[in-house]
Amino acid sequence: MNRKFKGGKLVIASHNAGKVREIGDLLASFQTDVISAATLGLAEPEETGTTFAANAELKALAAARAANLPALADDSGLAVDALGGDPGIYSARWAGPSKDFAAAMAAVHAKMGATADRAARFVCALALAWPDGHVETFEGVVKGEIVWPPRGAHGFGYDPFFLPLGGSLTFGEMDAAAKHAISHRADAFAKLVAACFQ
User: Fold this and answer.
1) Which CATH architecture describes the domain 8-197?
2) Which of the listed residues 12, 35, 62, 96 has the most CB atoms within 10 Å of its CB?
3) Smallest Cα–Cα separation from 172: which of 96, 101, 111?
């Protein structure tokens, strides 16, 4: 039996403004007062997990215990088939300390070389944790392919060069509502909501 979120304050365990905004939008219809870990001045824990789920749980638990409130963490990234799943859990690290995703996209593109295999997927693990250590974790995936050059100025991270399967617009070209309808985060979020918010 999944534990239910009872409403009230919920810490979003992220210092990424784009991610916090996207999760806040997805939570807008629930009795939730969203506050970011950055706003609370919480330290970012070292991501030592070997999977998206493990890192999401680590971040959610650290924030829940530090704030003494329920916390929701996301660990997500881009997995490229031709690169054996890289950048994967290291997606943000490929952008360096300055979070330069234009450079990260160029690095992925360069490493792929002339391969005909452009298949990729965005993966999102969401972990909802309580201060007592209980955690609920859900994973979502959206499949697609890498396009070059990047297209669009919406979204964040690797969005401008990810084309979802069957689509004609990259995540960077879609407005927020269109992306939310099909994204990896929306997939994971639908599972979270069904289990913990209803």
Assistant:
1) Alpha-Beta Complex (3.90)
2) 12
3) 101
